[in-house]
TrEMBL record:
It comes from Priestia aryabhattai (Bacillus aryabhattai). The keyword Ribonucleoprotein does not apply. It holds the Pfam family PALP. InterPro entries: Ser/Thr_Dehydratase, Ser/Thr_deHydtase_PyrdxlP-BS, TrpB-like_PALP, TrpB-like_PALP_sf. Its EC number is 4.2.3.1. It is an enzyme of class 4 (lyase). The keyword Lyase applies. GO terms for molecular function: L-serine ammonia-lyase activity; pyridoxal phosphate binding; threonine deaminase activity; threonine synthase activity. Residues 75-380 form the Tryptophan synthase beta chain-like PALP domain. This is Threonine synthase. Keywords: Lyase, Pyridoxal phosphate. It comes from the Bacteria. CDD domains: Thr-synth_1 (cd01563).
Amino acid sequence: MMPFSYVSHLYCPKCKKEYSPKEKHQLCECGSPLLVAYDLERLKDNLSPEDVKSREPNLWRYHELLPVEDPKNVISLGEGMTPLIKMPKLGKEMDIPNLYMKDEGIIPTGSFKARGAAVGVSKAKELGVEQLAMPTNGNAGAAWSLYSSRADIKATVVMPKDAPVITRNECAVAGADLYLVDGLISDAGKIVGEAIKAWGLYDASTLKEPYRIEGKKTMGLEIAEQFSWNLPDVILYPTGGGVGLIGIYKALNELKELGWIKGDLPRLVAVQAENCAPIVKAWNERKQESEFWPDSSTIAFGINVPKAIGDFLVLEAVYNTNGCAIAVDEDKIVEEQKKVAQLEGSFICPEGAATFLAARRLREEGWIKENETVVALNTGLGVKYPNTVDIEVPILERNGSLTKK
Ligand SMILES: Cc1ncc(COP(=O)(O)O)c(C=O)c1O
Ligand SMILES: [Zn+2]
């Protein structure tokens, strides 16, 4: 019988130590995140792109490349296979005629964090986890709270008090144990870390459990499938912890090993904001790791991460694909968000707007060529951040009238 998952083991990208996926593991003994390996040699003989084609349009269509071994443990709200949309008017304006948006707003919980939560929570359930804890910039906490309640797992979440307000409500309505901290995600991380140590909770922090990245990896699988296994030239990703970028890179390498894609991988671009750009600084200095970015701030709240635990993996993905890292102007993000809505009818999140702004800059600099196919990731709904739009609307008297424009 074909196994549901072809997961083989966990491995450390730093010291190469291996672990079993049948036990709970967090970081490697050496402190590095662990990654999931699959038996791709065997899978190659048993699965083809044709087999996947007729499956349900959600991320579990790639279950062989996901870590959940028993389908009974799948916790799903129908996440995945989000739209890949051509952006003709915006593309024309930016001189990138083949500009696309992968729209992660169209997914349960309104952000791509649903992918990591679906796979991470499903695997936690499979491993017998009853209680988990995590720091978050909002969207991940919301997604993990909601998926955890569906899985009967208790979630404890700590987020900065400045995180998007709606994400608090999502955690609260799901019944999570929620705390706000007067600080950044790094401060939330320290507080959660102490509770985890004291109470023996499962640590669901970014890259401290190996499975969230497997969920996010499906963005890469979907982009490849949606382009009929002919890859775009450039993929831009708003990078905080960088899990999505690491995941896309991992997905593309797995597809290459399976022989489903050929040729050079797309150039991966890590997009950050000018006041929180540790990965960009490291890339400019050709370093393998980043340094803590003090006093970081940006309206694109999800990418306000001053030091990412997986920074070396993000940088590796960027270097190995001849990609780049770019910091965008803070005061142009909202302007770009407005342009996308006015030209293309999509109200995207500020993190997504940062990726379009980066595409615009890279085209101006000639790093992106006119004929190249470019995919910008919109990681969430603009609707989740109502305060980024500052408007004055006329209020009419009951018997008022309109002014012709
Ligand atoms: C909307 C949005 N975009 C991007 C990110 C950054 O994600 P990653 O940790 O994969 O870099 C986040 C993280 O909170 C987010 O909420
Ligand atoms: Zn190690």
